[in-house]
Amino acid sequence: KNRKKFQFKTMGGASSQEITLTKPESIEPYDSKREYRPTPLLFNKQHNSDTKQQKLSEYGIDRRVRVPPTLAQWTMHSSPIYNICKLRAQYPNESVGGFGTAVIIGHSLGVTFVLTCAHNLIYVETDPETVVIDAQRAWLIIEKNTANGTEEIACCAVKDWVIHPRYKETASTLHDLAVVRVLNNDTRFDLSRIEAIKLGDGDRIRYRGRQAKVVGYPGEYLGRTAGLYGMRGVIDIREYKKGDVVYYTDIDTSPGQSGGPIFAAAADEDEEDDEKHDRHAIFDSFGDLIGVHTGG
């Protein structure tokens, strides 16, 4: 009852697929007292009794960098640092909510468009039988890093979302994508002030070997260490079939960063050596948005 269906044609026009617009059951205030954990762990029942996650440092060196609270961009609400947000969702029969990362890509007709991964808003299991559980409601949380953790800047209700039509059938990383429409309904912060982010062009192969940046909210960092983290690495590309391209990187990630933006660094950054530069310099600019992080 909370879904609308549409038809769209592929770029070649030879076939069409049905997509579903999912609406939350209701638009409600955000429940800040509810516990939220990274969505991939929410439905993994072996983790439900223990909210603590293993840190990457337990396996080796965690190379991610926390966005410094002193970063000048935090003082400018039109800064691209505010394009990267936390997405929180509630599911039926679950006392704990799920969260991931999302990126604001633009605005139209009074709503804000956000890109994230599908599994932040829907749980799909295909083996031994298909199980699909939609989120009941969701919110976009804008935060800034502080010396003591994070400070909430705004919390806006999700109006509706579209999941890639193949994801419910495959639960594959090839189709783990969602577009979300968010209401600008928090008087503390005007979402429309956030500028549209620069999208990568259609020549995806040219990004192979370039520097990538992945930015998001790792779930294992709590309290004073919570917040937005990022890292730079190298892009590899695998083409599964004509038109299906997946980016791979050697960047450290963990649950909570799902849906976080993948940026292709500007060409002049490819020659930089992290060992010779300030580790925080990766946040000075981001480059082209070429995808969202889905797993690994």
Summarize the structure.
This protein is mainly β.
Describe this structure in words.
By secondary structure, the protein is an all-beta fold. The chain is built from 2 helices and 17 strands. The strands form 3 sheets. A 6-stranded antiparallel barrel has the order 5-6-7-12-11-10. Strands 4, 13, 14, 15, 16 and 17 form a 6-stranded antiparallel sheet that branches. A two-stranded antiparallel sheet has the order 8-9. β14 and β15 form a beta hairpin. The longest helix is centred in the first third of the chain and has 4 residues, at 39-42. 37% of the residues are buried.
Topology:
Blueprint: E1 3-9, E2 16-22, E3 36-38, H1 39-42, E4 65-66, E5 84-90, E6 97-108, E7 111-116, E8 122-125, E9 131-134, E10 137-146, E11 149-163, H2 167-170, E12 178-183, E13 211-216, E14 229-241, E15 244-249, E16 261-264, E17 288-292
Parallel strand pairs: 3-6
Antiparallel strand pairs: 1-2, 2-11, 4-14, 5-6, 5-10, 6-7, 7-12, 8-9, 10-11, 11-12, 13-14, 13-16, 14-15, 16-17
Question: How many strands, which pairing sense, and closed or not: the largest β-sheet?
Answer: 6 strands, antiparallel, barrel
Strand content: 35-45%
With strands numbered from the N-terminus, the spatial order across the biggest sheet is 5-6-7-12-11-10
Q: Number of DSSP helices?
A: 2
Q: Low-confidence parts lasting 5 or more residues at pLDDT below 50?
A: 6-15, 45-53
Distance between the termini: 35 Å
